Amino acid sequence: MLTPTKQAEPQGNPVVTKIDRMPEPTAFRIETAKKSKEGLDLEVHVLAELSPGSGLVKRAYVKPNVPSFGAFELYCDEGMSIGGSDTAPAPLSYLAAGIAFCLLTHLKGYADTERLMVSSIRLEQKMKFQSRIPGMTVAAGADNQMEGLSKGVETFVFVETDESPEVVTRMVEVAEMACMAMQTVVNTVPASTVVISNGEQL
Question: What global pTM score does this model have?
């Protein structure tokens, strides 16, 4: 296992801190997740803002609306090549890690539910993106169109087990289908953005 080197924390704060309660949003109401015959309808609420100053440090509060799930304060930064100070994970790092963590949760859940003889599960994952930002991530002479693209996800699941290959394959297939983070990036999902400028909705 690699031993990470500890770097300076953003503004002297820990990158991740558990907090007592989620701040109240102003644009929507927080309601508790509801269970039905179709499943559990849940939401993850995020309140995020740019930190004061000229850098790219962001702070967010995040919490699922599921009882027993806590609220956390997170810091996020960018690499120095695009104006950040590299003091916290970048947005895409959180995205990629979230998918990996979610999939591991479902792999463990399936193995436990089916009482499989599994001694260890780990994964390695590669998320591919393309950034098109004139003057920054594309060569000189390109058009002025700013665009970000997702180019796919490659996942390698390493399992130590006495189970058959068929059972292990089934475990991974079920876990991928159950992983909401994975399904968010491999399927088209609805999205909407509302802009409030100076207190007025545009």
Answer: 0.87
